[in-house]
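> tool_call: predict_assembly(chains=two)
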Amino acid sequence: MEAVRSCSEVYLETYTSLLTNTPISTLESFYGKTIIEADRETVESNAERILANAASSNVAFLVVGDPYGATTHTDLEIRARELKIEVVKIHNASIMNAIGAAGLQLYKYGETVSIVFFTETWRPDSFYDKILANRRSGLHTLCLLDIKTKEPTLESLARGKPVYEPPRFMTVNQAVEQLLEVEGRRGEGAYGEETMCVGVARVGSRGQRIVAGAMGRLREVEFGGPLHSLVIAGEMHELEEKMLRTYFDVDVVGKAVEEEEEEEGG
Amino acid sequence: MEAVRSCSEVYLETYTSLLTNTPISTLESFYGKTIIEADRETVESNAERILANAASSNVAFLVVGDPYGATTHTDLEIRARELKIEVVKIHNASIMNAIGAAGLQLYKYGETVSIVFFTETWRPDSFYDKILANRRSGLHTLCLLDIKTKEPTLESLARGKPVYEPPRFMTVNQAVEQLLEVEGRRGEGAYGEETMCVGVARVGSRGQRIVAGAMGRLREVEFGGPLHSLVIAGEMHELEEKMLRTYFDVDVVGKAVEEEEEEEGG
């Protein structure tokens, strides 16, 4: 809070994650600062703009999660250091450790995978080999689910003047559909309908929802609004199984979830 | 802050991690609460004491890092939920994600390993197979280094009245010694003197120190006070190599480190 309040400019990165239940205006009044939203284009192609005043005054670059959660953040740090600008990082919880809430021990996770929205012609399955390797080693897999914010439509790109599609956030249900489609195609038994999984939504917020169950079963579970993530379990210790049983098709925070969903009209 | 201030009892878990640069008295005046230190015995054998008043009033259990960083914390949650006590978790940065500061991308880490202090007769090397598997898959390995707080001496145990050894925290240097000893014994080429590593100390504090270099080289680097961790790199992308080059035997925060070390007389 003190760090942000000391800044002349405050950016908020808005394309790798999403603030749950906190409008930007709330942040602005908390910090007493105008917040400039930084989309992918700003961060990747116009980093000079963010760094322009950082040599002579404090500039904040806020992210949802930890500052090292996304490659582009690291890239921004390297650019800053090349310009001899001092970079101070303030760490924070991120899905990479808050996923501990799913009930499986963090040190037993293998490589993290990303699952992107399939299109008619582009159905990449590079996650499959990674999940297979993790499962063969008895390790859990965190699946980060795709986020599309401010994507230009193909038609608008062809016309040379970008028009943006509405933001999309992959649900646990969609992820499971894609995972099972790829298992059907590859057939190497990395996982299947019966594989134990944990779906999580809005982790760390009051309205979080965590449901454990067979992968096929999670296809039908309603998790509510974004962001969602999915864990594919590996071998489990007794304590982990015990924790997962408490998440079999129940809400973690019980009543609070329903209240919050009603407020949001969801 | 508000959550802790609402509590009738506040515990601080003191055996899986260490508060860097913050005496408990500082926390006590910040929260306006007396803080009860909870060692391993209290948490593992006397959890009832912590949970005794939690049904009728708010009780805080503070940990350094994220609430799901240690198995015993999960166990405490399960006990509480068995007693129908509502458990609210507030996530935080932990070494499991703050290790992103080492410059290697979090999603490319494999299974995390723990390295315990070798004794004359007990030199466990179960970490070796895990590092080997990670390295074969091109993945980075986070090595969590042993912490011994309030360990009874063997002699005192024999006498039935525990006398405790002074706390010990494994350094990067000690970890490297043990790792190379095990490679010498096993000889399967999981890593060696020339393997790229990153040693980190006091991550997230103003006096943090991060040094990248060949494993053998890190044996000689002075990292200062606890806590230390070590990363053994897997395959690296260009961006990761670029980040690591900025950590070749230099302090991240430059001058701030020296100042802090002087203050501490270290």
